[in-house]
Write a structure and sequence with these properties.
Order of helices and strands: HHHHHHHHHHHHHHHH
Number of helices: 16
Shape: elongated
Oligomer: single chain
Structural class: mainly alpha
Strand content: under 5%
């Protein structure tokens, strides 16, 4: 048998080496593809875990922790649509749930949220969603403005929103709050009332609108703000909507001012509502309010005044007596006033 030429063996060896190289290359490609798929799946799994943790934190209203959780998710996959949607939702919820106390600092919060809101506004189409986002951006500007960390006037942004969505509940209620926070004049109250009315006319987010409205009025110390707060409280009673505790306590304090001798015109506050409506609203506001003994007596005294104003002399007389029962004679202005009322109603 003739021996195969050496060059033929070499050619066959080269061919087999090519086969082996192709197989190895294919296996390398499969490994790379498998690793890519595995790494992608692992990243998505970690993101899903982080988003689940963020939802738990949101339910607990732990917005700071939720934000830190999303920051971890962003590092894993900066372009994740799920993470962006979660950032969007968190920004809105956080801004909506901020407890506006005058000593609280918000600039650190708002700085985090402005970039998210600006990004989402840029990608949103004109309409309700775009207007809602823009209103929240204005609210973030307000939080910075109140601490003098920004010179951006939030009213400009609110005006842009209303031009796009005339009854936007966020922009109107936020603007109304801003007016009473920054100025507090009678004219500002009139403007704020119009904004809150327009917000309610949208029939969206009524609870949020009422929350900002009552907070703005409760934080305004002017008598006409407290008069308006009582009107709003009566409206909320008829809407079966609870009044925030802060506003309830603020109103109770104003009854002390109006009926306790400090006001020069107590009749004005008494006549904010018709007598029957005022009495019903008073019961709704304060019957279940936990008070110490002294304030409980005051509540009974205020109730007697309203009952007398409504023509219920019998119950008024009973409550005047209860208000000063077991009190030392001439022990204070309430004792003097209640005693005078008892004499007047006993004739």
């Amino acid at each position: 048998m003739a021996e195969e030429p050496k060059d033929g063996k070499f050619q066959r060896l080269l061919k087999w080496m090519g086969y082996i190289a192709a197989i190895l290359s294919f296996l390398g490609t499969l490994y790379g593809l498998g690793k890519y798929v595995y790494d992608r799946a692992e990243t998505n799994r970690k993101i899903d875990q982080l988003l689940a943790a963020e939802m738990v934190q949101l339910k607990g209203r732990d917005y700071e922790s939720a934000w830190r959780t999303l920051e971890q998710a962003v590092k894993l996959k900066p372009d994740s649509s799920k993470v962006r949607d979660a950032e969007h939702s968190l920004a809105i919820l956080w801004l909506d749930d901020i407890q506006l106390q005058r000593t609280q600092k918000f600039s650190a919060i708002s700085q985090k949220l402005v970039s998210v809101l600006s990004r989402d506004i840029a990608s949103a189409k004109p309409g309700t969603d775009h207007a809602d986002l823009l209103a929240h951006l204005g609210w973030a500007y307000y939080l910075q403005f109140r601490e003098e960390t920004s010179e951006v006037d939030p009213a400009v942004t609110f005006a842009q929103v209303i031009a796009e969505d005339p009854n936007n509940p966020y922009a109107h209620s936020m603007w109304g709050y801003f007016l009473l926070w920054s100025h507090r004049g009678m004219d500002d109250l009139r403007k704020a009332k119009k904004h809150f009315a327009s917000a309610l006319d949208s029939h969206r987010r009524e609870d949020y609108v009422r929350q900002l409205q009552t907070l703005a009025l409760a934080d305004c110390s002017e008598d006409y703000c407290q008069d308006e707060l009582l009107r709003v409280a009566s409206a909320m009673r008829q809407e079966n909507r609870p009044l925030p505790e802060h506003a309830v306590l603020r109103l109770f304090g104003h009854y002390y001012f109006a009926f306790g001798g400090a006001s020069s015109n107590p009749q004005q506050f008494m006549n904010v509502l018709p007598p029957a409506e005022h009495l019903v609203t008073f019961h709704w506001l304060f019957d279940n309010l936990q008070l110490d003994e002294g304030k409980s007596r005051s509540r009974t005294y205020y109730l007697a005044i309203l009952q007398e104003a409504g023509g219920d002399r019998e119950h008024a007389l009973t409550n005047y007596r209860l208000a000063i029962a077991d009190q030392r004679p001439h022990s204070g202005s309430m004792w003097e006033a209640a005693t005078a009322s008892i004499k007047r109603l006993s004739r």
